[in-house]
Specification:
It comes from Streptomyces endophytica. By secondary structure, this protein is an alpha+beta fold. It has helices spanning 15-26, 81-90; strands at residues 6-12, 29-33, 37-42, 45-54, 95-101, 107-111.
């Protein structure tokens, strides 16, 4: 398959809050902001989009539009995982899994894109 761009669309109950989180903490920029939909782009990755659609909106397929978003994990590969984790902690972003070195060679941490449970 040959495609021009790649995007991920997530359902949310609060499009504005979801948008602000990725703009404030990860450097995304809004391309489109409506009350029911937002499309974000990162300046370093113009061919990738992160979209949020209000749960229940008719733009989504009927069998999908009312589902809860669950199990979505977005991965951002960075040069300095320790520095990025420290910066996000300093901003008050809840850390789901602290920085760790995996046996397969990956250094990673996870954050909650919402308030920690």
């Amino acid at each position: 398959m040959r495609f021009a761009k790649f995007g991920t669309a997530l359902l949310t109950d609060d499009v504005a809050a979801s948008t602000r989180f990725y703009v404030d903490h990860f450097g995304f920029r809004p391309l489109v902001e409506l009350d029911w939909y937002a499309s974000l782009q990162h300046p370093q990755h113009p061919d990738c989009a992160l979209d949020f659609t209000l749960r229940g909106h008719e733009a989504m397929p009927p069998d999908f539009r009312h589902q809860k978003t669950a199990g979505a994990l977005l991965g951002f590969m960075v040069e300095d995982a320790a520095g990025e984790e420290a910066a996000l902690r300093a901003k008050g972003v809840p850390i789901a899994v602290p920085l760790r070195d995996e046996p397969w060679g990956q250094r990673r941490f996870n954050v909650w894109a919402r308030k920690a449970p």
